[in-house]
C-alpha cells in the first residue's frame, strides 16, 4: 500500500513553562500520538481544552506556538519528514501543500489588507498560480462557500464582513492554493448555531469537491460527527480512542468517550410553582446612548421563586443587554422591573444595598471576573463583609461552608485564581454570588467558555444549589443543550424582541415559529447524516 | 475619502488652531509675569523715572495687558511680529531667514534619520534577539546617551580638526551651492540624526513587535511567507500610527530642540536667535520665537494625528 498523505508516529511534544517566580520546567503536551490520514479523508481530533489537539494540528505544519518543541516521533507529509525539516523546507510546505483555518477568523485576518489580497497571497507567493488565476479561483471558492457577491467580496476589508463570512473567507483562503491537507482548528466554535450550520456544510462541500484531506479539530463531538471519516479522542495529550466516526458515536469503547457522547443527552424535569414571581419585567424598552433604535423592545418576563428562566438567542439578540438593564447598569428607556414585590429603581446608584444583595451575577469569563491578586477566601469573603459585616473567624467559617457547597475543599481558601482550573474558577464565582444569599442570580453564559464535561458539572451544581437554597436563575445562553438541561421557563430572543416565551415543555414543543424552528434545527445532533437531513429540509 | 474622515480631519485642524490660540495667550502671559518690564530691562542701570516713563509710553506699555495682547495678536495675524527692542529690526524678516536655516537643517536631519530609523527598526525585528538586533540597539542607545553638546565637540574634534573632513563651524551664505551647504552642516546633521535615531528606532521596533503578537501574523507565517515579507507586508501597515506619532515628535524636536546644536556649531538658526535675545531680554522676539516653535510642534503633531486617522482601515473603508 502506498504511503498515506500524512503519517504521525509516536509524536511527542514538549514545552518549557515558566510560571512567574518559579524555575522553568518541562511539560509534556502530547505524548505518543500516532495517526494516519489518506488523501481526501477527514480526521476529527476531539478533546477538551489542554488535550493537545491544536498542538497536534499545527505540528503537521512543523509549527509550534511559543516555546513548544516537537521533541520525538515522526511526522511525514507527502513522503517528507517534517519534524526536523529546515525552515526553508517548512516554508515551502506551509500555504502550499498544507494550509490552516484558525478558530477566530476575525483575529486571523490582517485588518489593514483587503480580503482578496490575503486569500491569494499564499498561492501567488509560492508560485502555485498567477495573481489572475488565483483571483479567479478565489471568486469561485467564495461562490461555493455561499459568500454574498462573490465577484466583489474580495475587495472588502475584514471589519466590513460578519464573523460567519470571515470564517468562510478563511476556508477559501486555505483552499485557494489547492493544498493536499487543510487543518481546521475549531472553525465554527466561535459562531452562533445557525451560522455554524451554514459554515460547516460549506466546508464539507468544499473539501469533498476539491478532494482535499483535512484534520478537523473541535471539542464538539456532534459537530465532528457530521464531517469526519475517522475520529481520534484525545485527553491530556494522549490518545483515548481512535476509530471510524460511526464506531466512536455508536459504540464507544472507552469510559471517557462514552461520557463525551452522552454529555448532551441530559434533560431536566420542569418545575412549576404558583408563587408570586421574584422578578417581573413589564414593557421594557432599552437602548444604548447614541443609538436611534431600541436594543430591547417591549420585553415582558417573569421568574418564579426557585425556578430557572433561560434566555436564549444568538449574539446581538439583546440577551446580555437584558442582564445589564435588570442589574441597573443600563437604565431602560421605559418599562417596569418589579423585584420581590417592589419596583426597582432604574439606576443602580439609586438601589438600596438590599436590592443589590438579593440580585447577584455570575459572568461568562470567570478569569476576568476575579481579582487575580486576591485569594479565594478574600474573594468569597468580600460580599460576606459588605452585606453582613462578617469578619475574622466567623467569615472564614462561612467561606468554608460555601466552598463545601460548591464541592471544593477547605484547602482552596488560600489559593489564587491562577491556581484554579476553568471549572473551579466558575465555581468560586458562583460561591461569591451565593455568599450574598440572593433571591435571583443572573448567569450570563456561565458555561460557554468551559469544556462539555466541566460545563455539565457546573449545571448540576447550579441545579443542586437551587433545590437546596430556593434561589432563582436567569440563565443567559446561546446553547440549546444547556437550556434543555436547566430551564423551567424559556424566553427566545431575536433582534431585541421576545419571539417565544413560556414553559419549557411548551416552548420546545411544536408548532414552532420560524425563528425557534431554525434555532432548534441548527443544533448539531450526535448522529451520522444529521447535517444532510437538515440541508435537505 | 469619505465624509466621516473629512469630519475627523477637520476636527483635528480646528483643534490645532484652537491650541495655537491658547498657546499664544500662555506665551503672552508668561512674558508678562517676568519681574520688571521691558523698559526697565532696556534702560538697565541708566534708568531714571522720567526716561522709564517716556519709554513705556513709546512702547505702549501703559495700555492694559488685554489691549496689548490683542494688538499683538492682530499684528501676528497680519504677518507683523513686531520690532525687536534690542536692535529695532523687524522681527518677521529677521526670523524668516533664521527659520529657513533651521528648517533646512532639520529637514535634512529628518530626511536621513526617519528612513534610517524605520529600516533599522524593521531589521532589528527581523533579527530579533540575534546579533544585528543587539548591535543596532547598543549603537543607537549609546548615541542617545551621550549629551548633544558632548557629541558635537567629539565630532568636531575628530572629524573637523583631526581629519579635516568637515568644517567645525556651520556657516551658510547665499553664494553656496546645495552641496556646499550640506557639507557645511554635515556635522550638526550627524549629531541631530544620532540624537533622534534611537528613539524612533526603538519605537518602530516596539510597535512592530507588538503587532507581531497578533493572530494574523501567525496566519501569514502559516502561509509560508518569508519573515521579511511578513514584517513588511503584514506587520508594518498595522504599526504606522504609533510610528508616525513618534516620528512627528522627533521632527518637532529637530525644529524646536536644536538650540544646543546650533549654539555649539554657531549655526545661524532660530535656536541661536532665541538664545541671543533671551539674554538681551528682548521680549517681542522671545514671544515671536515661542509662538513659532509652538506652531511647529502643534502642526507636526496634527499631521501625525491625521496620518493615523488615514492609516486606519476601519475609518478608510467604513461598513
Describe what this molecule looks like in 3D.
The complex is a heterodimer of chains A (537) and B (319). With 537 residues, chain A is α/β, with parallel strands linked by helices. Chain A has two domains: 6-110 and 162-265, P-loop containing nucleotide triphosphate hydrolases (Rossmann fold, 3-Layer(aba) Sandwich), CATH 3.40.50.300; 279-536, Rossmann fold (3-Layer(aba) Sandwich), CATH 3.40.50. In chain A, 37% of the residues lie in helices and 24% in strands. In chain A, strands 6-7-8-3-9-10 form a six-stranded mixed beta sheet, sandwiched between helices. A six-stranded mixed beta sheet of chain A has the order 16-17-18-13-19-20, with helices on both faces. The model of chain A has no long low-confidence stretch (mean pLDDT 89). With 319 residues, chain B is an all-alpha fold. In chain B, α6 crosses α9. Chain B has helices at 3-32, 38-43, 49-59, 65-77, 91-126, 131-145, 148-162, 178-184, 186-212, 215-222, 227-235, 240-256, 259-264, 270-279, 283-311, 313-316. The model of chain B has no long low-confidence stretch (mean pLDDT 87). Chain B starts with a helix and ends with a helix. Chain B has a domain at 99-280: MetI-like fold (Orthogonal Bundle), CATH 1.10.3720.10. The A-B interface holds A 58, 61, 63, 65, 90-96, 99-100, 102, 104, 107-113, 118, 121-122, 125-126, 156-157, 159-160 and B 214-216, 218-226, 229, 233-234, 237-238, 311, 313-314, 317, 319.
Any descriptors?
A: 537 residues; Rossmann fold; 2 domains; 6-stranded mixed sheet; 21 helices; B: 319 residues; MetI-like fold; 76% helix
Tell me the CATH superfamily of the domain at 99-280 in chain B. MetI-like
- N to C succession of SSEs of chain B: HHHHHHHHHHHHHHHH
The first-to-last residue Cα distance of chain A is: 41 Å
> How would you state the average pLDDT of chain B, rounded?
87
How many DSSP H or I helices of chain A?
A: 21
Number of domains of chain A: 2
- Rounded to the nearest angstrom, the radius of gyration of chain B is 24 Å
Unreliable stretches of chain B, pLDDT < 50, 5 or more residues? none
**Class per helix and strand makeup of chain B:** mainly alpha
Question: What best-fitting shape of chain A do the alpha-carbon axes yield?
Answer: globular
User: What is the CATH topology descriptor of the domain at 99-280 in chain B?
Assistant: MetI-like fold
Identify the CATH class of the domain at 99-280 in chain B: Mainly Alpha
- Give the DSSP E fraction of chain B (strand runs of 2 or more residues): under 5%
Amino acid at each position: 500500500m502506498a504511503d498515506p498523505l500524512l503519517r504521525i508516529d509516536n509524536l511527542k511534544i514538549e514545552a518549557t513553562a515558566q510560571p512567574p517566580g518559579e524555575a522553568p520546567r518541562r511539560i509534556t503536551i502530547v505524548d505518543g500520538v500516532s495517526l494516519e490520514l489518506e488523501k481526501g479523508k477527514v480526521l476529527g481530533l476531539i478533546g477538551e481544552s489542554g488535550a493537545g489537539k491544536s498542538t497536534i494540528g499545527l505540528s503537521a505544519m512543523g509549527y509550534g506556538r511559543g516555546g513548544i518543541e516537537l521533541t520525538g516521533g515522526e511526522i511525514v507529509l507527502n513522503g517528507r519528514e517534517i519534524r526536523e525539516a529546515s525552515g526553508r523546507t517548512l516554508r515551502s510546505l506551509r500555504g502550499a501543500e498544507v494550509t490552516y483555518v484558525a478558530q477566530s477568523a476575525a483575529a486571523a485576518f490582517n485588518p489593514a489588507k483587503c480580503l482578496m489580497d490575503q486569500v491569494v497571497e499564499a498561492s501567488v507567493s509560492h508560485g502555485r498560480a498567477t495573481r489572475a488565476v488565483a483571483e479567479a479561483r478565489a471568486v469561485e471558492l467564495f461562490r461555493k462557500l455561499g459568500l454574498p457577491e462573490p465577484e466583489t467580496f474580495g475587495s472588502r476589508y475584514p471589519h466590513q464582513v460578519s464573523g460567519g463570512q470571515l470564517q468562510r473567507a478563511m476556508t477559501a483562503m486555505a483552499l485557494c492554493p489547492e493544498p493536499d491537507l487543510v487543518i481546521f482548528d475549531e472553525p465554527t466554535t466561535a459562531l452562533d448555531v445557525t451560522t455554524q450550520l451554514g459554515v460547516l456544510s460549506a466546508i464539507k462541500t468544499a473539501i469533498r469537491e476539491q478532494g482535499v484531506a483535512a484534520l478537523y479539530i473541535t471539542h464538539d463531538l456532534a459537530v465532528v460527527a457530521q464531517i469526519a471519516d475517522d475520529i481520534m479522542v484525545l485527553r491530556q495529550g494522549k490518545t483515548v480512542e481512535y476509530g471510524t466516526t460511526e464506531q466512536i458515536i455508536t459504540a464507544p469503547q472507552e469510559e471517557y468517550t462514552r461520557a463525551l457522547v452522552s454529555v448532551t443527552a441530559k434533560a431536566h424535569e420542569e418545575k412549576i410553582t404558583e408563587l408570586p414571581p421574584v422578578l417581573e419585567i413589564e414593557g421594557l424598552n432599552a437602548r444604548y446612548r447614541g443609538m436611534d433604535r431600541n436594543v430591547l423592545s417591549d420585553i415582558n418576563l417573569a421568574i418564579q421563586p426557585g425556578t430557572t428562566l433561560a434566555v436564549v438567542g444568538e449574539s446581538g439578540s439583546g440577551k446580555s443587554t437584558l442582564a445589564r438593564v435588570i442589574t441597573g447598569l443600563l437604565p431602560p428607556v421605559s418599562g417596569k422591573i418589579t423585584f420581590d414585590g417592589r419596583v426597582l429603581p432604574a439606576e443602580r446608584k439609586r438601589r438600596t444595598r438590599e436590592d443589590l444583595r438579593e440580585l447577584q451575577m455570575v459572568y461568562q469569563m470567570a478569569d476576568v471576573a476575579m481579582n487575580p491578586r486576591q485569594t479565594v477566601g478574600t474573594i468569597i469573603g468580600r460580599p460576606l463583609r459588605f452585606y453582613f459585616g462578617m469578619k475574622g473567624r466567623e467569615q472564614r467559617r462561612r467561606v468554608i461552608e460555601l466552598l463545601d457547597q460548591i464541592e471544593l475543599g477547605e484547602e482552596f481558601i488560600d489559593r489564587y485564581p491562577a491556581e484554579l482550573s476553568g471549572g473551579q474558577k466558575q465555581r468560586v464565582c458562583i460561591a461569591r454570588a451565593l455568599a450574598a444569599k440572593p433571591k435571583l442570580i443572573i448567569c450570563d453564559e456561565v458555561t460557554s467558555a468551559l469544556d462539555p464535561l466541566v460545563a455539565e458539572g457546573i449545571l448540576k451544581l447550579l441545579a443542586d444549589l437551587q433545590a437546596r437554597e430556593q434561589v432563582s436563575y436567569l440563565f443567559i445562553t446561546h446553547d440549546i443543550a444547556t437550556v434543555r438541561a436547566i430551564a423551567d421557563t424559556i424566553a427566545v430572543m431575536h433582534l431585541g424582541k421576545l419571539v417565544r416565551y413560556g414553559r419549557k415543555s411548551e416552548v420546545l414543543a411544536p408548532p414552532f415559529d420560524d425563528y425557534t424552528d431554525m434555532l432548534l434545527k441548527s443544533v448539531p445532533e450526535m448522529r451520522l447524516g444529521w447535517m444532510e437531513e437538515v440541508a435537505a429540509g | 475619502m469619505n465624509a466621516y474622515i473629512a469630519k475627523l480631519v477637520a476636527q483635528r485642524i480646528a483643534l490645532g488652531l484652537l491650541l495655537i490660540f491658547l498657546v499664544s495667550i500662555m506665551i503672552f502671559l508668561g512674558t508678562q509675569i517676568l519681574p520688571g518690564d521691558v523698559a526697565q530691562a532696556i534702560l538697565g542701570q541708566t534708568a531714571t523715572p522720567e526716561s522709564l516713563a517716556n519709554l513705556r509710553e513709546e512702547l505702549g506699555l501703559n495700555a492694559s495687558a488685554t489691549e496689548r495682547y490683542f494688538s499683538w495678536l492682530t499684528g501676528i495675524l497680519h504677518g507683523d511680529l513686531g520690532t525687536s527692542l534690542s536692535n529695532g529690526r523687524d522681527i518677521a524678516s529677521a526670523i524668516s531667514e533664521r527659520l529657513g536655516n533651521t528648517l533646512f537643517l532639520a529637514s535634512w536631519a529628518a530626511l536621513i534619520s526617519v528612513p534610517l530609523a524605520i529600516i533599522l527598526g524593521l531589521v532589528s525585528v527581523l533579527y530579533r534577539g540575534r546579533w544585528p538586533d543587539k548591535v543596532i540597539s547598543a549603537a543607537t542607545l549609546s548615541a542617545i546617551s551621550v549629551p548633544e553638546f558632548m557629541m558635537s565637540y567629539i565630532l568636531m574634534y575628530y572629524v573637523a580638526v583631526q581629519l579635516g573632513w568637515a568644517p567645525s563651524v556651520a556657516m551658510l551664505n547665499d553664494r553656496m551651492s546645495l552641496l556646499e551647504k550640506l557639507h557645511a552642516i554635515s556635522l550638526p546633521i550627524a549629531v541631530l540624526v544620532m540624537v533622534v535615531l534611537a528613539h524612533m528606532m526603538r519605537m518602530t521596533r516596539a510597535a512592530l513587535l507588538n503587532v507581531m503578537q497578533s493572530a494574523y501574523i501567525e496566519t501569514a507565517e502559516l502561509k509560508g511567507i518569508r519573515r521579511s515579507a511578513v514584517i513588511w507586508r503584514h506587520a508594518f501597515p498595522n504599526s504606522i500610527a504609533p510610528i508616525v506619532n513618534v516620528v512627528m515628535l522627533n521632527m518637532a524636536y529637530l525644529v524646536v530642540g536644536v538650540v544646543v546644536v546650533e549654539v555649539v556649531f554657531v549655526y545661524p538658526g532660530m535656536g541661536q536667535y532665541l538664545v541671543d535675545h533671551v539674554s538681551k531680554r528682548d521680549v517681542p522676539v522671545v514671544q515671536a520665537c515661542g509662538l513659532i516653535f509652538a506652531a511647529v510642534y502643534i502642526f507636526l503633531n496634527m499631521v501625525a494625528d491625521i496620518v493615523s486617522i488615514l492609516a486606519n482601515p476601519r475609518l478608510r473603508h467604513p461598513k
